[in-house]
Structures are given as structure tokens and as C-alpha cells.
Write a structure and sequence with these properties.
six-stranded mixed beta sheet; 19 helices; alpha/beta; 504 residues; five-stranded mixed beta sheet
Length: 504
């Protein structure tokens, strides 16, 4: 470890990595004494992963190799930071690539850390968080714009709270490939690209106009490149203006070819025109006259969110609570089931090789959401709940985490069906099955939906063998619960678990 490597001086470092469609970014930060973070190092590499997304939506081998080489270099920088203080997120290209899972397996081995694929909603939330912390404290209502390689995030918010979030499938890489793939820039092509972008914006413009804003902030490399070019072309403003946009369009048409854009960095040049047209149309459609720029973006938002998690201010709890409230779940029943599930989890942690910090949260969230499908249909509410969880935008969650949560809820009653668990690594698949069993037992004990004294209930486990130990007098006074446990024993047997009831 070199003298300047993070983590060798006893301070509390965190690392946040953003695997974008155009660039991979890493920030190393130190926790502030009174909250917040101080960035001490930034690493950015133009990987162009999105450019390697072929027509069949498969990532090319060449683009994967570029990405893996970059991640190998990132790994060296992370070597002294504990794994629980590192968070890595993937965005649009990894959301849509058909071979994303195969690439992620290679990428995680190369980097040495798990990679979370986040939804467009979560990406927008984290972008806003990064932008808000990077700006002066203000109660002004802000419109934040981030133009990435494969998607554009638009967020309206106030202070540190987003009010409206959208992620649109238009980005500097995708727009350049679609309309300027050969590098030729003409007025007709700019006009055609603009029409396409306007169509994508049709469904979102009015709701942002209704919310309103006091200032507009741009966070991406594309927007900073536009800001720099505007100044370079003689528009002496400390922000992006309509006049600057007009000057850049005139210059692009005079240049006529991407390779001739000498005022733009060589790395940014191949995707600049697509990003420029997106911002130009956004300014027209939203009636924006002035855009400030901010260094805070997705990776900074990831860093702040990670620190919140480390200090028990996890946004995922609020996201689960919001989803539960939206579907009118019985919060009292969820609390009962969750409390018992955590108790049972603690009793089998060691024998079942579960991790309290991570698996406790997962089983609590599953308990809170296990009945959100009741309003659709009671008889199959677990299946409806699983669908809702997997397809909702839940603050703080990666797509993988939502799928794991959906698996637990979808198997929380009746026959266990783990048909779609193959995408998980074997050890994670085993953990999800075991957490599901814990939740099912907790639900069974609280089927009466009333506060029952369960302090004497003990769960023992070894591999796939389970034993529920209870007082014989308690068992005798709760015959329906015993009947339900015996029924549950049959369900578990079909899934390979052996449940024994022991009365003492």
C-alpha cells in the first residue's frame, strides 16, 4: 500500500463507484465530523460500455474487456477500504444488456466487490442527492438534469428531498449512435434527433411545470462539457444560456463532423453531439433560460447514501414503508411478524451461516411487505406481492435486492416455488431459501393476527433440518397453531426442509 492510498491513516473512508454507460467513475471520501463527506480522490475512465451494446442488446466482448481492465485498476485503489464501506452501482447499459448477468459475474470477480444494478428511479434519486449536497444549502426548489450515456435523469426537489423523479431512455451515447453514428452533423439530423427527444419528453414536461422551480442545475460530464464549450466560444457567462446553446449549434454545423470538434476533449468528442441535442431540446421544452453546473452527481449521491446506511439512516426502510402504506398493509401484523422473524433469525444465525446486519434487514422488509398483495386477491396475495415488489420503484434498492425480496414474499405461503432463483450465486440462493422459511414460520405463529406470548419459542437448525421447540402447555392451548405448523411441515418437506415439532 502506497503512502497516499486511502485507508492507511485510520480515518473513515468510503468509496462509491458509478458504472455508467459512457464513463466509469470512482470517488473516495472521508466522513465529515458533523455529517456529509469530503471527497479526497476521484478516478474517471471513459469506458464507453454503452457503445458496445449491439443491436441484439448483447455487450460486445471488446467493450467488456475495456470495462474489466478499468475495474482491475479500480480494485487496486480500493484495496485498503473495508468491503462494507464500498458501494458499486450499474446504470442503464447494465439494466438493458441481455448478457448483463454474465458480465457482472466477471466484473465482480475482477473488482472484488458486489455490483448493484439500480433502476432509473433510484439513479435519479441518487443524482439528486449528490447534486443537493454539492450545492449551497438552500430551500429553493431545484430542477436537476443529468445526461448520461444511456439515460437522462430529471428531478425536481427542494432541499435534500426529491419531489418528482424521471429517468428517460435518451443519453449522449444512444442519441449519437442513433442519429450521428457516422460522425456527420447536419441541420436535418439535429432536427430529426430533436423530434425524437421531444416525443420522449411529452409525458413528463407538464408535471414538472406544475411543480415549478427556482433554479436549474446540470450535473453530468456532458453538461459540463457544454458549459466549457460555451465559454470557449466567447459566451462569457458562469452558466449555460440560450445564447450559448445557439452558439454551439452554429459551431457544430460549421464543423460538420464529430472528428472536427477540436474544442471538445478527444474522449468526449464521439458522443458530444447527442448529449448537446438532448440539453438543447430540454431547455426549449421546459422553458429553461439558465443552467448552473454542479460537480455533485450519481457517485457522490451513492457515497452519501452509503454513509446514511452505515449510520442506520437507510433510505430503504423509508422506501419499504412508503410502498406498504400505499397498498394499505396491516402495519400491526407486519410489526408482529417482523419482530418474531428477527428473533428466529438470531437463533439460527451461526448454524445457517446468515449475516445479522444484512439478513435482518431483508427479513424485516419482507415481513413489512408480505401482505401488500391482499388488496388484489387474498388467495394469491403472496404472488401479487412479489410482482409488485419486483416491478416497483423502491427508494434505495438495487434491482437484485428487489428480486431477492420478491422471492421471499412470493414464497411466504402455500407451496414453495423457487423456479427463478438460478440467477443468484449458490450461497445467496441458500440464504434466501432459509430466510423464506424463517418468515413463513413467523407468519404461521401469528396467523391469529393478535399479540401472542411467544417468548418460549425456540428454533434450532442444522443444514436443512429444523426443530421448533415449545412448551407443551402452550402447544395444548394453541391447537390451531399446531395444526398450521404441521401443515407447514408438509410444505417445507416438498422444498427439501425437514421440520420437527418438539414439545417440552
Amino acid at each position: 500500500m502506497t503512502k497516499n492510498s486511502p485507508g492507511n491513516d485510520g480515518r473513515s473512508y468510503v468509496a462509491a463507484i458509478d458504472l455508467g454507460s459512457n464513463s466509469f467513475h470512482m470517488v473516495i471520501a472521508i466522513e465529515g465530523e458533523e455529517g456529509g463527506v469530503r471527497i479526497v480522490d476521484r478516478v474517471r475512465e471513459m469506458v464507453r460500455l454503452g457503445a458496445g451494446l449491439q443491436e441484439d442488446r448483447m455487450l460486445s466482448e471488446e467493450s467488456q474487456d475495456r470495462a474489466l481492465q478499468c475495474l482491475g485498476r479500480f480494485r487496486q485503489r480500493l484495496s485498503s477500504i473495508p468491503s462494507h464501506r464500498v458501494r458499486v452501482v450499474g446504470t442503464n447499459t447494465l439494466r438493458v444488456a441481455k448478457n448483463s448477468r454474465e458480465f457482472l459475474n466477471r466484473a465482480e470477480r475482477t473488482l472484488g466487490h458486489p455490483i448493484s444494478i439500480i433502476s432509473g428511479h433510484e439513479e435519479a434519486r441518487l443524482v439528486y442527492l449528490g447534486a443537493a449536497f454539492g450545492l449551497a444549502v438552500s430551500n429553493h426548489r431545484r430542477l436537476v438534469i443529468d445526461i448520461g450515456g444511456g439515460s437522462t435523469e430529471i428531478i425536481a426537489g427542494q432541499g435534500f428531498r426529491p419531489l418528482q423523479l424521471d429517468s428517460l431512455y435518451i443519453g449522449c451515447v444512444s442519441m449519437t449512435r442513433r442519429f450521428f453514428d457516422d460522425g456527420i452533423i447536419t441541420r436535418d439530423r439535429i432536427s430529426l434527433a430533436g423530434k425524437f427527444i421531444r416525443r420522449e419528453l411529452e409525458t413528463v414536461v407538464n408535471k414538472y411545470r406544475r411543480i415549478g422551480w427556482d433554479e436549474v442545475v446540470g450535473t453530468s460530464g456532458t453538461i459540463r462539457a457544454i458549459d466549457n464549450l460555451s465559454r470557449d466560444l466567447g459566451i462569457k457567462k458562469d452558466w449555460i444560456s440560450r445564447r450559448g446553446i445557439q452558439a454551439i449549434e452554429k459551431w457544430l454545423l460549421e464543423s460538420a463532423c464529430s472528428e472536427a470538434l477540436e474544442r471538445v476533449s478527444e474522449q468526449r468528442r464521439p458522443v458530444f453531439v447527442g448529449g448537446f441535442v438532448i440539453l438543447s431540446v430540454l431547455m426549449d421544452e421546459f422553458g429553461i433560460k439558465r443552467i448552473e453546473t454542479s460537480d455533485g452527481a450519481l457517485r457522490e449521491g451513492v457515497a452519501y447514501d452509503l454513509i446514511d446506511r452505515l449510520h442506520d439512516e437507510d433510505a430503504r426502510f423509508a422506501g419499504v414503508r412508503e410502498l406498504s402504506n400505499f397498498f394499505g398493509s396491516d402495519s400491526h401484523q407486519a410489526r408482529r411478524v417482523g419482530k418474531l422473524a428477527v428473533l428466529l433469525l438470531k437463533q439460527v444465525l451461526g448454524n445457517w451461516n446468515l449475516q445479522e446486519s444484512m439478513h435482518r434487514k431483508l427479513v424485516l422488509w419482507a415481513a413489512q411487505l408480505h401482505e401488500i398483495g391482499v388488496g388484489i386477491s387474498y388467495s394469491h396475495h403472496h404472488q401479487h406481492g412479489a410482482y409488485i415488489i419486483e416491478n416497483s420503484d423502491i427508494d434505495g434498492f438495487s434491482r437484485q435486492a428487489q428480486r431477492m425480496l420478491a422471492l421471499i414474499v412470493g414464497n411466504s405461503r402455500q407451496k414453495l416455488r423457487f423456479n427463478e432463483i438460478e440467477w443468484l450465486p449458490p450461497e445467496s440462493a441458500v440464504s434466501i431459501k432459509r430466510l423464506t422459511v424463517i418468515l413463513r414460520l413467523a407468519i404461521t405463529f401469528y396467523r391469529s393476527r393478535s399479540d401472542v406470548d411467544l417468548d418460549g419459542i425456540v428454533l434450532e437448525a442444522e443444514d436443512d433440518d429444523l426443530r421448533v421447540v415449545m412448551d407443551s402447555d402452550w402447544a395444548e392451548s394453541h391447537p390451531l397453531t399446531i395444526f398450521d405448523l404441521e401443515t407447514e411441515r408438509n410444505y417445507l418437506a416438498d422444498a427439501g426442509f425437514n421440520l420437527t415439532l418438539d414439545y417440552r
